[in-house]
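Hi P.,

Sorry for the delay on this. The queue was packed all week, but I finally got your sequence through. Input first:
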Amino acid sequence: MYNKNYNFSLNLNKLLNEVKEYKNYKIVLYGYSFFCKLITLELKNSIVCIVDKNAEQLQENEITFIHPKNLHLYDFNYLIITALGREKEISRTLDIDKTKIIELKSLYNETSKLMTTTEDKKKWTQLKDKYAGKRCFIIGNGPSLNKHDLTLLAKEYTFGVNGIFYKTEECGFKPTFYVVEDNHVIDDNLETINIYNCEYKFFPTRDKSKILETSNTLFFEYEMGFFNENNKYFCKPRFSFDCEDKIFAGQTVTYTNIQLAYYMGFSEIYLIGVDFNYQVPKSTTIEGDTYISNENDPNHFHPDYFGKGKKWHDPKLDRVALNYSLAEKVFRLNNKKIYDATIGGKLDIFEKVDWFSIKGLHK
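Then the structure:
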């Protein structure tokens, strides 16, 4: 632990030394993160404004917050991206001179460690193998979910994600575990996500500054090498056996849930609503890796899920399949099972079971 903290301290000093080079320029910061706050203190009078998609909800004395769409109204020399690990994604969406964009290199691997507290670790330790030998249901959000009666899951352990709150509004169903790892989902639904309540909620540590921390909220290090073309693990699936340490990105939040379920000790997983079938409407606006909807969402159980104005990512189902195949192997080799109980889904990696024949659900 001493070495880890010492290394982080060194990296933090490197970062602050990097930003000192810009103290004589007019600076814009992108992303109101922990590091943004540190840099604001370091540069003080050099800061023109802070760009954040949730600008309207942010207030600090002597700080101007703006939405990205208003960036063109401000005069500045450089823009520093403080959302570490998302630089390339953010850079693609900014309609400014790219030579003005500064990416900080010092803290990629240590960001989440700083944000992990003793209380966080205690929560994770309490969840390790807590549900050993039990079964759970991981709920996808495809259109087929409307064919499943979720009230039948009231006494089951369930994982819900992203816009599952639409089902809560519709039928009162709430999952045991609620997980969001997509930054677009968090930014577009922040208020709803923060007031949504269930037994446990999970988010990446990179979003800790946005998420309302409660006794049932846990944060995880989201290792995103799978997405990074410059990473040796680009498009190479990995499986986490210790979610307290990290969870590996796998192109879909369902893969995050599978790793969580393993960590908690579940021996049987039933997938529902995992249609494994996507279409990109012709009206979609595409900006780099970001897709912006201009009509109702045809790919999920509710038309507003990624409805008009909301942002999402190309699901890249071929890459999802790589991670699902690894998950199937991990569970099989450890005497655990993943079943696909989706009604009419096109996924063919996990053993199929009939939703209407699952013991204990139907009379």
